[in-house]
Write a structure and sequence with these properties.
222 residues, alpha/beta, Rossmann fold, 8-stranded mixed beta sheet, 16% strand, binds NADP nicotinamide-adenine-dinucleotide phosphate
């Protein structure tokens, strides 16, 4: 059985972990404060879940979900992530993360910067543009008329295939928007960031078609 490691198990990481366990995956969750602080989440997730350090979660994961504030990317366990598929949920918010000149000047996307630092890890940007509550409520089985797609961006075709299969298992189709360089199209402030899945305060969200998501991605401007 595939194990999914989580570096960061907060609002979005915790939501993906719940969907993964519901789909039958084993999960290893981690945060910055230590495994003992995740006892509540592990109890909720049940026997398919355990808590560990971030380094151990990276080591244990066949796939690793990285869902930390962007500024924490500099402290990721690079050696343990080497060669692995990393599903990266991160967004760059200068007011939270501090300023990164290359990002502010539009020279790189935040996902490219993270990929550069991670070396051989095979990064796919996904889950970054959907509110965590909508991610929880909009999951649907394959073939359901109300099934929604999530966007994926990455430079490694095999990693994107793995991401697509993982999304399929947890209740989502995938819309491939291209390389990490193209991922600015789903960054904060762009039309595909949030609204296709419903308005931010609404806890339920709205199912959305692949055509609508593609149209929102195509409407991106910078
Ligand atoms: N919230 C959303 O709806 C949403 C949606 C899409 C994307 N995102 C993006 O996803 C990322 C996570 O957001 P979130 O809302 O889930 O944040 P959150 O609820 O604050 O959770 C962040 C998680 O990262 C952990 N963490 C922080 N530094 C770490 C480190 N150095 N090593 C290991 N774990 C670390 C935190 O652990 P501690 O609690 O122990 O510090 C916590 O488990 C952000 O980049 C955000 O912009 C959020």
């Amino acid at each position: 059985m595939t194990t999914v490691g989580f570096i960061g198990s907060g609002l979005i990481g915790g939501t993906v972990a719940r969907l993964a366990v519901a789909a039958g995956y084993d999960v290893v969750v981690s945060n910055s404060r230590g495994p003992e602080t995740l006892a509540g989440l592990v109890a909720e997730l049940g026997p398919k879940a355990r808590a560990a350090t971030a380094t151990e979660a990276a080591e244990a994961g066949d796939i690793v979900v990285v869902s930390v504030p962007f500024h924490a990317h500099a402290r990721l366990p690079i050696a343990q992530l080497a060669g692995k598929v990393v599903l990266d949920t991160n967004n760059y918010y200068p007011e939270r993360d501090g300023a990164f000149a290359e990002l502010d000047e539009g020279k790189l996307t935040s996902a490219e910067l993270e990929q550069r630092e991670l070396g051989t890890a095979r990064l796919v940007k996904v889950f970054n543009n959907i509110f965590h509550a909508h991610l929880a409520t909009l999951a649907r089985p394959a073939g359901d008329a109300e099934r929604s797609p999530l966007t994926i961006a990455g430079d490694d075709a095999g990693a994107k295939q793995t991401a697509t299969e993982f999304l399929d298992a947890i209740g989502y189709d995938a819309v491939d928007i291209g390389s990490l360089a193209e991922s600015w199209r789903v960054e904060p402030g762009q039309p595909a960031y949030g609204p296709p899945y419903g308005n931010y305060p609404d806890p339920v969200g709205v199912p959305v078609s692949a055509d609508k998501v593609r149209a929102a991605v195509a409407a991106a401007r910078r």
